[in-house]
Amino acid sequence: MVEETGATLGNIERIGIHIAGIVQGVGFRPFVYNLARRHHLRGWVLNDGAGVRIEAEGASHALREFVAGLTAEAPPLAVIADMMIIALPLKGETQFEIKSSLISVTHSATISPDIATCPDCRREMADPNNRRFGYPFTNCTNCGPRYTIITGVPYDRMRTTMDPFAMCPACQAEYDDPANRRFHAQPNACPVCGPRYRLLNSDGQEAAGQPLTEARRLLKNGAIVAVKGIGGYHLVCDAMNQQAVTLLRTRKIREDKPFAVMGGSLESVRRHCLVSQAEETFLTGAVRPIVLLAKTAGYSLAEAVAPGNPCLGVMLPYAPVHWLLLAPEDVWVMTSGNSSDEPIAYTDGDAIARLAGIADYFLIHNREIHYRADDSVVRIFNDKPYILRRSRGLAPAPIRLVRPGPPVLACGGELKNAFCLTKGDQAFVSVHMGDLENMAAFESYKATIGHCQGLLGIRPEVVACDLHPEYLSTKYADHWNLPRIAVQHHHAHIASVLAEHGLEEPVIGIAFDGTGYGSDGHLWGGEFLLADCREFTRLAHCRYLPLPGASRAIKEPWRPAAWMLQELYNADFVNLDIPLARLLPEGWQMTIQAAAKGINAPLTSSAGRLFDIAAAILGIRTHIHYEGQAAVELELAATGARGDTLPYDITAGNVRELDFRPTFAAMVQAIGQGRGTAELAAAFHTTLAAAITDMTRRLSKTTGIRKVALSGGVFQNMTLLRQVAGLLEKDFTVLIHRQVPTNDGGLCLGQAAVAIERSR
């Protein structure tokens, strides 16, 4: 039970316990206090810079039961990563108490993510006889803001943005009462002493009436309201109101990308979407992310919410203000408070400055948000979460690494950025930081790294980054006067899967995405790697093709499609009876001629561009308005359809190539035969899955590897993931992401894992 021998008196002992993990901000000290009182122990508990420290004295059998109860009965949101127990000399205390937190120069406490409002707090807000009736900042030790309000550790009110709000006598009494669930609840507040909302118009003038009641009335009448929540501002409007949603699209400059919605109840969600048991679990749990759901046949929200898309991103209320604004039957658009490609607004001044041209009104409060946090986004795959964005409710909870290493700062990629800080065997992946090409996002990224270093007590000794020399994250890494480890983009993708699963042996890694800087200076994206968390060998890839117009080819899928067709048919392809031939812009020939001469046409092996080519040939999308739109719409076109496997080639050599020119030639021929868009979109997915499986089996024969890891943004496509995993699982162990996104939001974890291995 103990690591050292201390003084005892008969069967009376004293022990010291230190617990690390997510044990601050989750009601752990009150839990310890009540557990100790139940076992008639004396001593104390406190927060320190590394977790929770306990000294307990009492009968030997009582101490044994107390220690067992620390893990068996811990609060539901607590995560005990480590527990150290030592024997101590007796002190003869007469009671057990919660002591003031111990401040230390070094610290390594783990901070809880923000937690959705618990049922007890919801009942109080709905009870006219309760003093917190209708109060939009109701919380307790089991719920409420954590990460977004903390300014330092140990976690105490004075080191949160609740510090300016002194508790009234009633709240203080709850805080001091061991039998109360608000015992030592740091954000505790009520209408008498806590934060308050105000409603402002777009000119900054305060509106008359009760702020939440008036905001709800305005929303029901078609207004757009910027609502300050836990991690930032949302832009909100009635999802049943086509005019309001269309106006929001226009003002936000968001042409086609679907909006997320919030339903007032699970019943209101079920009226518009199919909800499985696993999906319901995530919708109603403590995290409450946006969950991507399939629409029902009776879907009746405004068409502008998710135009032409059979899926919808849905969440349920997670903050008190949501429960008070939405009636059970309501469904409202709840989209990030920003213009397209900007980071979410979270300070009042920035929100009013940036959103004044979008929102008609601002529902703001006077509790500072210290860290911004977008909503997390998940899909359910095989009844388990498949994370697309890891942010509010999930970050910065640690991920356990297979072994400890030096503290690392992994800077992540350029798009969908997240960074990672490691300490010992724990990796702390940040909330979603956005696209660093936006300067506001980049400035926020740098500031948040600094904040998290201080919060987690991590001083990096190694910095890891992407291999791309022009990424802002790479240039940021260069500013550190530390050993720098550059990790190839697709190696980082595969290493992130291995790190999640605690795997040290090599695997066949299949990294399919839009683009990543390759070791040969070309743009990779359709890669088969022999990889572990230290090194990789490129075994195979999709055949290189040029990107006519460079980065413009990513936003204009007609460009790579036109190149592909001129390779197959020369310029005569414009005479083919296919949709793309009728959609080409004027001057397209000059673009292709320049690419043929190698002018502004970098080579790429990107699998993402294959989706673009297929979408353009079929006339689905020749220009995109958001990242991956052509691929998304190609998958939507294939939904519910069946398609045969089309031909493709695999070339031999030290590094094999997957050649899809025969695939696209077959598609053109099939169009001429009158086969429909849905069938051919499905055939493209079927062919890609078959080709991936074929190549993997060949590589397995030469390497002897029977484990396969899938990563990269292309595997956000559920149709492809389902087919590839289903085919490969017949012969291989298939590893996919479960804790970080398969897109570039998970890169930083792979970078950190590689840096640790290379630093050994």
TrEMBL record:
Pathway participation: Protein modification; [NiFe] hydrogenase maturation
A biological-process GO annotation: protein maturation
Keywords: Hydrolase, Ligase, Metal-binding, Zinc, Zinc-finger
UniProt-recorded Gene Ontology molecular function terms: acylphosphatase activity; carboxyl- or carbamoyltransferase activity; double-stranded RNA binding; ligase activity; zinc ion binding
Reaction it catalyzes: C-terminal L-cysteinyl-[HypE protein] + carbamoyl phosphate + ATP + H2O = C-terminal S-carboxamide-L-cysteinyl-[HypE protein] + AMP + phosphate + diphosphate + H(+); an acyl phosphate + H2O = a carboxylate + phosphate + H(+)
Source organism, top-level taxon: Bacteria
Record-linked SUPFAM superfamilies: Actin-like ATPase domain (SSF53067), Acylphosphatase/BLUF domain-like (SSF54975), YrdC/RibB (SSF55821)
Ranges where the YrdC-like domain occurs: 209-393
Alphabetized Gene3D superfamilies for the sequence: 3.30.110.120, 3.30.420.360, 3.30.420.40, 3.90.870.50
The protein's Enzyme Commission number: 6.2.-.-
Enzyme class: ligase
Boundaries of every Acylphosphatase-like domain copy: 14-100
Annotated catalytic residues: 29, 47
Family of this protein: Belongs to the acylphosphatase family.
Protein name: Carbamoyltransferase
